[in-house]
Write a structure and sequence with these properties.
InterPro entries: HTH_LacI (IPR000843), LacI/GalR-like_sensor (IPR046335), Lambda_DNA-bd_dom_sf (IPR010982), Peripla_BP_I (IPR028082). The protein is α/β, with parallel strands linked by helices and about 350 residues long. About 40% of the residues lie in helices and about 20% in strands. Helix 11 links the parallel strand 8 and strand 9.
């Protein structure tokens, strides 16, 4: 038979099942045996059957699409995060709609509002999103999972990276390696991630290098801001023994500034970053960094959202924290290998009120 414009009835006839069974399989509604699911999907693929999404949405009340609002779509961190989200979404038969909010709170609101009615749920990572923002811009019943957020609400699950513990572990390593004078390149002042990483750095210095002042330079997570910070450090007297950047891109910019000035890393100055993006291990020298399992962050967030899409799931909202390790490479002059920071996923219950 021709496969042009195949209908759901064609799929049912070829698979020798009912139209209702085909609908349940393709809409991910369950109630069909794994063997039947396999047959239906194989037949649908062979016939090039394309569901009428508009009609399907009218029947099911679902779009089978989830939205992701991120600070930016540029760079290795966000591409890896999107990859983790997308791979998990495919497992659940969901499509992914992505937008960015890097131009401020109004851009974040516009991105969120543009997705309303087009998605079944959202993942939101934005420094501009707080409880008031969510209340004003999101429908009450829309499932939402927040990433790296300080929001405390009984309505919204949050998945955070243990930024503070990761920073503490890296600074402790630097001090124990003999680098007591540490400079920290901070991230954006409004970023929850950046705030927590700076707090961890300060706490570790107070504990492991008491009385030694911490040099803090402004950054914004971009390579260029790391380069400017590196240039500024070149003129410092005395120069710090080590630089800890709040993300790998700033560490890469800082490394460029040091190399241009003829400084040897780690011979003249040690360097470390945060995130463990792919390129960090291929630099010269390879970069010591706090390893964030970026794809896992996206995957776990999507799994939490997929659970919220199931009306039978009554799991209360919680704050979950994804731990990280520090990976020691040549840039800080330490012995190569991995030093473990808290790496398990921790969950804490939500307060009952916002």
């Amino acid at each position: 038979m021709t496969t042009k414009n195949a209908t759901i009835k064609d799929v049912a006839r070829e698979a020798k099942v009912s139209v209702a069974s085909v609908s349940r399989v393709l809409n991910g509604l369950g109630g069909v045996t794994p063997a039947t699911q396999k047959i239906v999907r194989e037949v649908a693929t062979r016939l090039h059957y394309v569901p009428d999404n508009a009609a399907r949405s009218l029947i099911t009340g679902r779009t089978h699409t989830i939205g992701a609002v991120l600070p930016d779509l540029y760079g290795e961190f966000f591409s890896e995060l999107i990859r983790g989200i997308d791979l998990a979404a495919r497992v659940h038969g969901l499509h992914l709609l992505v937008s960015s909010s890097h131009d401020g709170a109004e851009a974040a609101a516009a991105a969120v509002c543009a997705m309303r009615g087009r998605v079944d749920g959202m993942l939101i990572l934005s420094e501009y999103v707080d409880a008031a923002f969510l209340e004003h811009n999101l429908p009450d019943k829309l499932p939402v999972v927040l990433l790296d957020s300080p929001v405390k609400s009984a309505r919204y699950p949050v998945l955070n990276i243990d930024n503070r513990a990761g920073a503490i572990a890296m600074v402790r390593h630097l001090v124990e390696a003999g680098h007591q004078q540490v400079a920290f390149i901070s991230g954006p002042k409004t970023s929850f991630n950046a705030q927590q990483r700076e707090k961890g750095c300060r706490a570790a210095m107070a504990k492991h290098a008491p009385g030694v002042p911490l040099t803090v330079l402004d950054g914004n997570f971009s390579e260029e801001s790391g380069y400017r910070a590196g240039q500024e450090l070149l003129g410092r007297k005395p120069r710090p023994q080590a630089v800890f950047a709040a993300n790998d891109m700033m560490a890469i910019g800082c490394l460029r500034a040091f190399k241009e000035a003829g400084l040897n890393v780690p011979g003249d100055i040690a360097l470390a970053g945060f995130d463990d993006i792919l390129i960090s291990r291929y630099l010269t020298p390879p970069l010591s960094t706090v390893q964030v399992r970026i794809a896992d962050l996206g995957r776990i967030a999507l799994e939490r959202l997929a659970g919220l899409l199931n009306p039978a799931d009554k799991t209360p909202a919680s704050v979950e924290t994804l731990g990280c390790d520090i990976v020691i490479r040549e840039s800080c002059g330490g012995k190569a290998g991995a030093t473990v920071a808290p790496s398990k996923l921790r969950k804490s219950p939500r307060p009952l009120r916002t």
